[in-house]
Fold these 4 entries.
Entry 1:
Amino acid sequence: MNDFINVKNFKKTFLIMFFSMLAVFIVCLCSFFPGVGMNDGLNILRSETELTSQFSVFYVYFILFLHNISDALTGGDQLTIALYSVIQLTLTAFILTIITVWTCKKNVPVFVKWCTYCFYLFHPIIAIYSIAMIRDTLFACSMVMIVILTYDIITRSRSVKKKSFWILYAFSIAGTAVLRSNGIFIIVPFLIVLLIAVKKTRKNTAIIFGIVIGVTVISSFLKSNERGDMFQEKVGIPLQQIAAVVKNDGVISDDDREFINKIMPEDKIKEKYNPRTSDPIKWSNDFNRTYLDDHKRRFVKTWFNIFRDNPGICLNAWVQCTYYFMLPVQEGTVQTFFTIEDVADNTWLVDFLKERGIHDRPLIGEKINNVIRKYYYLSKYFLREGVLFWMTIASLIVYRVRSKNRKAVIIYLPFILLWLTMILSTPIAFSMRYVFAYVIALFPVTLGLALIKNKH
């Protein structure tokens, strides 16, 4: 067993870990077949290329590619979701195996190695996210890959000399950059810091930077303009702050009030306002997205005036809609995904599911499956978003002190930048999928690097 966890036979250890994770994820898929639906993925199937203005171009086209296969073979989308689930769970098992083997090769306590492997293998939240029809799972996997490979760069590991290392690094960085809209705001600052701080790898880092720019340019050309600029997605927190001021009858000039009413009537804002998320407002039928897209500067000016005159309300609105990302509070349950019907909470989605033949059809007998699902429902009881982030920061501090590595912060920088994009631009109080990277990093990075011995 020690030879296995300490990777004395690389090929054997890798294959055992990969196929064991694959088997567990397949059981999860059989329980929730054809997979775990999510509004975003189902909306892409419904609206097709129109949603490239909102979601990653590559993510949208991947789903539509699977849709075309499913439509040609079955005339529905049950197979689309099943194919997506199979491909994602396979990629997830492969990447988590790489992370686990990397951990096992490092000079960390044996219990950390076993915790990493067993956590990925047995914890229900990992299996659920491996089959969930969301881009966040692979985004999180890519980000953790960046962190562990950056550790090898900073500590001058021998693996950095291999071409395969830089190919894997390039894929991880490109994946993080394109899978979510905030990815580029994480990767660009990170690569700039890496270029400045690590001289010996500047050539390879610069090449990867060029790849990221190229992929981003291609992505922009492939985007659809059918939905306009989707400016409301970029100013979610300012929108939430303006809505809070309206809701609380704050100070608003006549000119600003007139402008706000052209975007959305005040009475509708008061009716739809939710302190935890801006979604009810920015996706309301009463919200004039076209007008907002055409008057961006005027919106920024209005927001500035309202913030200046109502700083207390605006700051309170910001805290309320980023609460669980900012503070290390442990209460309630985390975001997980179960049957397709569980997310069918609006009329258009219910109708679309029926039209496209999408429905929950477990491949396991009902009695046994009821027991299995009780296990997967436990995935809701996990550490909260802010708790995981502050544990990550604690790990950085402990690693920096114990290792005396002055460049330690570079290793953790993607996690820090991820958190900043959440609290600065994401107007929702909680969403585990946005920071799922902290979950994947819990044992190999958060615990592993904190306990790694000084000898790298």
Note: The two ends are 23 Å apart (CA to CA).
Entry 2:
Amino acid sequence: MTNKELEKKLFLKKESSWITYNQSEIETAIDFCENYKTFIDNSKTERLCVKYSINILESRGFKNLKDFDSLKTGDKFYKNIKGRAIFAGIVGQNKESLNIVGAHVDSPRLDLKPNPLFQDSELALLKTHYYGGVKKYQWVNQPLSIHGVIYTTDNREVEISIGEKEEDPKFIIPDLLIHLSQEQVKKEGSVVVEAEQLNVLVGSIPVNDSEIKEQVKFAVLNYLYNTYNITEEDFNSADITLTPSGKAMDIGFDRGLIAAYGQDDRVCAYPAIEVISTLDTPEKTALIFLSDKEEVGSPGDTGADSNILLNLAIEYKELLGLTKDAHLILENSMAISSDVTAGVNPNFKSVHELNNAPILGKGVAIVKYTGSRGKAGAHDCGADFVAYIRKIAKEDNIPVQTSVMGRIDLGGGGTIAKHLSSYGMNVIDAGPALLGMHSPYEVASKIDIYSCYKLYRSFLQR
């Protein structure tokens, strides 16, 4: 063997998936991403994502788990967790362990405060509280839409969705003009726009009645009452969110990239839904877990750091009549924590350690460990399970690349992996690399999204 041949064998290759895939598969990837754009446009919040996912599942033969008296091999089920998280599964030949793909369906956003509406300077505005890690200055002068639900004391559930249709009004947080911002631009980036300045414009026309003290606020409340039969007090029991109002869009002359809001992490949720909803009966029971609250640490009754996965395992074992303890079923399971990571941004390369940073278009980024600094808060996947994921990727011609989140002591982050691994199962993070993560428009490669679909399918069908 010549040195050149030996070099080819020994060195790690990082080739573009656009080159390693054949033309037929590239066309399949592009078609796949057209459907993905429709999905993410209809999934601006975790509630909307769960609702849209259930429509897909039911159209493909899945039934609500509560409608089963028992389960058997081949049964397709889903479980809706309070409209904000969801499980979907297919009972496999081997029922005593699970292959799990877990993503999250919440994204950084602006939530309304419990008493949000006020009038100032003849304008009506809504007070917000940002959710998850955001650069606050990115949310000003952006067209925003409003989504959510209000529960009234007379037992009504009122859904609100304004700003996505072309004819809908939009909402905006006005920034300070450059002519008056000499002091503002001297501030650190984290406080160029401060949290309490993220107030959204929602009205400007006053009611023509001099007896009303706050005439613009009154006009807004009158509109809400006439349209939704709600009062100002009903905001106290509301989950209302503001998100960017634009649709997913192709980026570049070659249309190889997608920019959209909420790709962290619905870019992983969609491939998972597509895999489970089109999968034949697998060898082991296949399960997807789309959780909520990851962007704030996965707490609460719909987050991965709760008992909802254990509760699902208990219900699953009882419907199958299994004697094995639910904890042991989970311990003997394997999981992909399907989440995104930071791709190399050519404008800001210094924040990456380039030997271990993923490049858009070069495949699924597999992340052995998360956390920050000295792996604080990490899940650190065992080398044997990393090798298993590499093996199935190689067998099915799926490009993968290793990744860490930025330079040591500079970057870092977490996923739901550590919560899944708390049951004792093998877990690894795997998903597309993004540019501009947590911004109003994140960027992903179409070929990486498709590669994630292929990896999740290979993993779940075994």
Note: The chain is about 25% helix and 25% strand.
Entry 3:
Amino acid sequence: MKSENQKTILVVEDEAIIALLEKKQLEGYGYAVHHVNSGEKAVKAIIDDALPADLILMDIDLGSGIDGTQAAQQILDHKDVPIVFLSSHTEPEVVEKTEKITSYGYVVKNSGIVVLDASIKMAIKLFHAKTERKHALEQLRKSEELYKNLFDSIPESVLLIGADRCVVEANRASASLHGYQSPEELIGFDTRLLISSKDRERASQVQTDVLSGKETAPRHYTEVRRDGSEFIGEIISTTLYDPKGEVLGYIGITRDITTIVQAEELLRESRQRLELATSSAQLGIWDWDIVNNSMLWDDQMFKLYGIAERPDSFGVEFWKKCIHPDDLSTAWEACEAALRDEKKYDIAFRVVHPDGTIRLLKGDGLVVRGTDRSAIRMIGINQDITEHGRAE
């Protein structure tokens, strides 16, 4: 029975007596041995997997059929297997024929079983080393493909930037963001030229900080596309080090936040207009979270109630304490009636400022209800109508 570590040798030899001797010697050294007497049979046996072989001992002169070099080439065209040529020929032209074929040695017949055994073992070691290296290279290739696919699938622009501030590698999103057809067009590009001239000096200083290993927060810059158009980019930078701790460069991740910045600017302008309108009309805006009993007031609300120092958090009880004692029950009953959906919250009541000043406010509110129709929020406005009340 063949042991797990026993190697199988296929002997290709047309001389029956020589083949029998080789088989007996190899078996004496612990090999399992098969024999075929022609190149054609060797090719068929290997291609059809009829005879398993860890190594082939191939005679060169195989009689009237194809010779050993031809048989070896046909076998290697279908399967990678170590082949050692075993021949009595030492002529240069014969040896040169074998050099054109991937083989693992050339042994002259009658060199002795010790030399043959050593040659076989060396050939098998070389073959395994080659196989492992091939497998490692294949795994590396797959890893590189996986890395490239992952790198290109990132939706944000990613640039690997060297210590000279030039692009070493770029993903597809970076090319698209900056108006280029392919990432390769960005390789070697000075990243400072991707920044608008109005922000370039500031960006250059941040690059200096990153390349010196300093932590930097995300920054906003006006960037330039290939066609000269501009966009606002948010850049996150991370320093890259080699195994010795030396700075290699950095990774720059960029996303286009132009629409976000524009929306924030519009919102800021809207808030300014709202604050101007509410201030002119002496209107305060409030929002009561009924479930958590917390309230939000804008700045004008605190002015209406004469409160200079804004509390961190407060609820409806804080509001009640600001109401004139004679108006408290009326104001709260109106609020509860609105919560019960009996009538709209629309009431006038007096408030007492901390300095004792009394002002007349008008309150309007809207109740927000959940799916079960229970009140979950109430939002509204207060307006100072003191002068108007006096006029009436």
Note: The mean pLDDT is 87.
Entry 4:
Amino acid sequence: MTSTRSRPGLLAAGDRAGAERALQFLFEVQQKPDGSFPQNSRVDGTPVWEGLQLDEVALPIVLAYQLGDGGHWSGVRKAADFLVAYPQAPFTPQERWENQSGYSPNTIATAVAGLVCAAELAVRNGDTASARRYLTTADAWRAALKSWTVTTNGPYSSRPYFLRLTKDGKPDAGTTYDIGDSGPTGVDQRRVVDPSFLDLVRLGVLKASDPDVVNTLSVVDAQLGVRTPNGFFWHRASFDGFGEKLDGSQWEYNLPGGSLLTRGRAWPLLSGERGEYDIAAGDFAAARRNLAAMARAAGPGGMLPEQVWDRQGPGAPGTPTFSATPLTWAHAQYLRLARNLDERRITEQPAAVAERYLD
């Protein structure tokens, strides 16, 4: 999960060679012959867990496009072919938080962007037939995106808003699922939101001014936002249980669903993602505030944590919990936002995607 989202941080820091080495590693561990990527792996490429995330299949394609292919067309084609052929795609066995399957706005954003980037690389490599197939699929998924993931009758707003995901592609249905990580069971999918839909804007699939995007911002702020002395932060999803216990004692893996013994706190990296949206929307002052909040969330050694305390817990709100530190994904996000603020644009937004859907 972290690896494919950390690579753009190398580009933001100006380390193109490092990004190219990272991409080379990804294609070395690409699964043969199907073209997917392991959920995670050892350094030698041996898969560790058995999950599949379609975003992890799509994002190496985006990085290959950003780096100008670099001779990786064979791996790009295998990954794109996997996305197109995968049964029920863009339904994913796991979305980016790894503990749910479904139609995820975030996963669909990465899949659409990946296929558009793959089409551009296909044209460069003389494979126009594959390019047409990738674009046809990307356009179809983008067209169906809201019908799969935007509810019009959810409890948080009288206007439409994006859900974290749907289990059935029916966002107005009261389909229930278990949150996982000791969170509640049988939750109506219309009550579960997260900020991950913002990748639709970052990757150029939807405009920052899209009315459903704008309304979902207000929903997410109200449901997941945490104001602290160090800045404004967000929980990763409704009812999240991935974090320390309520008294601050250590997280325990595989606690029973519905036990409600643990609680996910706020994630500084989400402030960086919100800052990127702010830039896309032209609000540079808000983006700077989010960058500053990320910096203030660092621990004494200057390392960014996975999570900071919210208003429930033994630690001061906005300071690091006992979560993973440093979280490389958060450091990459900080670099990205700083670079984007410097250039006053989303530097890693694939031009091919933006030109197709935003112009």
Note: The first strand starts at residue 150 and ends at 151.
